[in-house]
Structures are given as C-alpha cells and as structure tokens.
Design brief:
60% helix, five-stranded antiparallel β-sheet, alpha+beta, 11 strands
Length: 441
C-alpha cells in the first residue's frame, strides 16, 4: 500500500504542475488550444481517480486479505480473547483507512470540480485548502494560480476589445471630421459674402475669393497691416479702442465706407466675431463683409425720387409741404412766410424751343434763386413753372416790408437774361407771398 500512496502523491504533484503550466499557456493560447488544454486536464484527473486511487484501494484490500490469512493461521495458537481484540483492531484500522481515503478523495474531487468551473469561465469559484502544507495544499495553490491567470487574461481581452473598438472608431471620426472640414472649406470659398480670418493682432491670415475681389488686394497685401486700419482708413490710435472692444466683448458690427486702392468707394456692413480666448493669445477673428453699395445707392435714388425734382435737382412739392408742416409742429408760435415765383407764359417757351430747352430754362431759374438763399430756405419746384421757398424775417415788426422787398429782389435776379444754347431769353415772372399764422395754416 505504501508504494501505491507514493504513486498517488506523485500523480498529484504532476497534476499541480500541469495546472501551473496550463495557466501559463492559456494567456497566449487560441480558443482551440484552450479547449485542448481543458481536455488534457480532465483526462489526467480521471486517470488519477481511476488508476491511482483504484490501485491504492486494491492494495488495501490485498493487505486485508493477507492479514485475515495470518489471523486464520494464528487462530489455533491464540485464545479467543486475543482473536477478538485483533479482529476489532484490524476492522478499526480498515475503517480509519477507508475514512482517510474517502476524505482525501473528497478533497481531490472538490479541487477537480473547481478546476472544471474555472476552465469553463467561472472565475469567482471559492478555493479552499490553500493553507495546507501537503500535496492537497500544493494542488489548491496551483488551482488558485490558474484562476488568477484566467482573470488576468479575461481583463486583458476586455481591454483589447475596448482598444480595438476605439481603433475602429477613430477612422470613422477622422473621416467625419475630414468631411466637415471639406464642407467648411467649400462654404468659405463659395459663400457670396467676403470672409476674412485674422490673428489676434488683426492681421489677415486667410481671405476668400469674394473678399480679395472686393478689396482689390492679395492676402499678402492685406496682411501688411491690421485689417481694421485698412477698412476704416485710420491709424492705430483710432482703431485700437474698437479692436479692444472686439477682443473684450467678442463681437462688433457696423456699416462703414472705404475706398480700396484703384477702386470706387464701397459701403459695407462689417460683422466681426472673436473665435477663441484673446487673453491667452489663442484663437482668431472672423470678418464678414456684406457689400451694401448698391443698396445704399438705390436708397439714395429712392430718396431723390421722393424728395427731389428730377429736372432741376431741387426739392419737389411733397418734400416742400412736409418741411412746412414740420416747422409749424416744432414752432407753432413762430411766424414764417412762403414766397412763390412763377414763369409767365412758360408754355410758349416749350412750344418755341422744345421741351429740352424748356427744361434748361427751369434749371437756370433754379440756380439763380438758389444763389440768393440759405439751405434752410428749402427751395423747391412745386409745379411745372413755379418755384417756392420759405423765408423768415429778421424783424417781426417790419415783417411785411421785408417780405415784399425780398420777393422783388428774387424776381429781379430771376429776370436776368438767360443763355440757353444759342438763345438769349428774358423771362417775365410773377411772385406771391403768404405768412403763417396771419394768413392761415
């Protein structure tokens, strides 16, 4: 039986070493190789349970038979009392041996079951018997090492999966960012507004084609000085407070007029936006210029059509009446007068010379009257051949005398001979006056 016990102990040592080797190999093994290692471990455990334990039990049985044979041979020479004691002792020895074998087999089976669960992926299985100093303890420590290796391998695989997922996601994010950059570049190049980028000091770093065409410059020329100095046509002492406002508040907008080199004056709405943190010296500034030159020209033309006479360039009847109403509303207790001057028989001039020369006569009369009057008089052509203006006397006591005298003076100036093309024309004109509030509203 001692030989069989030694053989069983050797088998347990071999099983423990096999577990340690399996734990080292599992970290770098493929799934197929892991399954092969699992199969080998199970086969070795079965061999120990069948061959080694079977041999140990057979040896015990043989020892029992030999002992019984000895007892039968000694029965004749021993008394019945000694025979009984000897039989009891042998039975007790056999019971203790069977109990020890059962307990030993139970512990081996428990470790084997735990090993199977670890191989199948149950890394949380409890591991008893690690503090023992015999072969069972060694086998338990080997199983614990195998368990630790499996947990480490599992964690490594999870980390590897996370790295691979991130690695696969990075190209997608990069392609998405590249598409966004391409779209932004396309918008920058094709937008209808002038767009310029500057650094924190205000020097141009990039400009789209519309900006270069509007400013009649290259990026290198624009970068020679701060963009606001170029647009506002002022030096740093004027531009610096405005630029500081942009950096502090992050935004500024306003309409300015500037004249690029070798170009006409441009009216533009400028929107300035800070991108980044100016205090840290990082970021850039975006300028967006909307050309309002044509819009303002159309507005001026509309105002001209609404307020001015297209033939003489003087104010028209509508504007003249509006200004009179405004005077009365603002100064209801102040008196002022209207002087109206008309050309007698103007139709005969159009019939004789034609409408073009007739229009020229109107222009010359307007010039003659405008030379006599201050801007506050609001000279206007209020009808086809009639001109009017407002007049305020210097002395309220002599209002009527001053009014009549100035009207006669205006008539005298307008009656001077006019030269239209090759004709010299002397006109006959008439004048009339009306005073607020004496003559009504």
């Amino acid at each position: 039986a001692g030989t069989q016990v030694m053989a069983l102990s050797k088998s347990i040592d071999q099983q423990a070493q096999a577990l340690i080797n399996a734990a080292s190999a599992t970290a770098s093994a493929t799934p197929a190789e892991v399954k092969d290692i699992q199969s080998q471990l199970r086969q070795e455990r079965s061999r120990i349970m069948v061959d080694d334990f079977g041999a140990l039990i057979s040896a015990a049985n043989q020892n029992l038979e030999d002992t019984m044979a000895l007892l039968r041979g000694a029965t004749e020479s021993l008394s019945s009392q000694y025979q009984t004691l000897l039989i009891l002792f042998i039975v007790l020895q056999i019971a203790l041996m069977m109990t020890a074998l059962w307990y030993f087999n139970y512990q081996i089976k428990q470790l084997a079951d735990i090993t199977d669960r670890l191989i199948d992926g149950e890394a949380t299985a409890a591991l008893p018997q690690q503090k023992r100093h015999d072969q069972i303890g060694r086998l338990a420590r080997a199983v614990q090492h195998f368990r630790t290796t499996l947990i480490t391998l599992s964690d490594s695989r999870e980390q590897l999966k996370a790295i691979l997922k991130k690695h696969h996601q990075e190209p997608l994010n990069r392609r998405k960012a590249e598409k966004q950059l391409a779209l932004a570049a396309s918008v920058f190049e094709n937008v209808q507004e002038a767009v310029l980028l500057t650094d924190i000091s205000g020097h141009v770093t990039r400009a789209n084609p519309v900006a270069l065409e509007m400013l009649h410059s290259t990026e290198k020329q624009l970068a020679s000085k701060p963009l606001l100095e170029f647009l506002l046509n002022h030096d740093a002492t004027v531009v610096e407070p405005l630029w500081r406002q942009v950096l502090d508040q992050g935004y500024w907008s306003g309409e300015v007029e500037f004249t690029p080199e070798k170009s006409s004056t441009i009216t533009a709405l400028i929107s300035i936006k800070l991108m980044g943190e100016a205090r840290e010296g990082r970021g850039h500034v975006i300028f967006v210029l909307n050309d309002h030159t044509e819009i303002r020209a159309r507005e001026a033309k509309m105002r001209f059509l609404a307020e001015q006479d297209t033939v003489t360039g003087l104010y028209n009847r509508h504007y003249f009446i509006t200004q009179g109403e405004k005077r009365i509303a603002q100064h209801p207790n102040s008196s002022f007068s209207i002087i109206l001057i008309g050309i007698d028989n103007f139709r005969s001039i159009n019939d004789a010379l034609g409408h073009d020369d007739g229009d020229q006569v109107l222009v010359e009369i307007g010039r003659a009257l405008a030379a006599l009057l201050p801007a506050s008089a609001v000279l206007a052509r209020v009808d086809g051949d009639e001109f009017a203006f407002y007049w305020t006397p210097k002395d309220e006591q002599n209002h009527e005398e001053e009014l009549r005298a100035f009207a006669e003076h205006a008539l005298a100036s307008a009656r001077q001979p006019l030269h239209v093309n090759s004709y010299q024309i002397t006109l006959k004109l008439s004048a009339g006056t009306s005073t607020y509030p004496n003559d009504g509203d």
